[in-house]
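Comment on this:
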Amino acid sequence: MAKKSVASLQTGSKRLTKAIKMVKSPKTGAYTFVESIMAPEVVNDFLKQK
């Protein structure tokens, strides 16, 4: 499973990070990408989820 924290986004006074995770589908075996914008502190928790 590939994972990467891509961008550091700044909106006003908040710092946000866009995280992209590649997830393999159990049914078809195809890979899909899951994107989310979040605070930098929770990126590792997002990437560890299955």
Remarks:
- Residues 43-48 form the longest helix (6 residues).
- The chain has a mean pLDDT of 82.
- The chain has one helix and three strands.
- Helices lie at 43-48.
